[in-house]
Amino acid sequence: MNQSTGRFGLSCALTTPYHEDGSVDLARLTRHVAWCLASGCDSVTLFGTTGEGPLLGHVAREQMIGALKGAGVDFRSHVVGGVIAASLHDALAQANQLLDADARALLVAPPFYFKGVSDDGLFAWFSSFIAKLGDRARDIILYHIPSVTAVPLSIALIGRLKAAFPQAITGVKDSAGDWNYSQQLLAAHRDDLAVLIGDERVLAQAVRDGGQGAISGMANLVPGRLRMVVHQGRDDAALVELVDAVLRYPVTPAVKALVSHTTGDSAWLTVRVPLLPMSVADTATLGHLFDRVFADKAA
To answer: Looking at the domain that runs over 9-234, which CATH code has it been given?
Structure first.
């Protein structure tokens, strides 16, 4: 929750910079976090989808946490951390690492390797996760992103988990890109959960309908514009056009291409395999579109 407004607000789904050898560029990371927080974000989210979280091992995560701590970032106020793992053991290790750092919240995805699992199976997994965290379990944001995990979180399952763990589960991030699902989620849980919308194209409407904000990849680029959407429910046609364009490509490399374009820093193009960087032509196409729709250089 944003301490000043009582709402979650805007969190940047941070993209992760790398050196040429594939190691995390901690200096670029800390500079980017500082810029995001100074430019309109209420918090940043490490280790999410945009940040290639599942491709980052325990050591890299520890180094990133340490670098931000060393730079004076207040984790309890300003850092959410992704927990994305197929095994309960790995999910607990990621969660405890973030809780040791006093992170603001945990963004927890379902176990993603086995597909077609039942709500009962997912309920058992999340129940075990929370039980094993014990008294440490807090500020858990359920992560619904079936386009990536292929393991959806039904509205019924979310309600069941909230009823069983009312103190531990505080929010849901809806990254399905399905407005019908978003409407159902808001209708069911706008009063008892922080509903966060990942699709920036419907974010303004979701805020007007009771949503509490977003964990947004576009906040790597135009946090000031997104802040007006998140805190005022203001429609932004330029943002919608940009998201439409980004979704024509693999999203994480596309976001990195735009960060490279807006900063003039080609190092941001690097991704970890199996992802591949955007082509020169596609990077130029996205860059030209960004310049056209944000002619005032709002980023």
So the answer is: 3.20.20.70
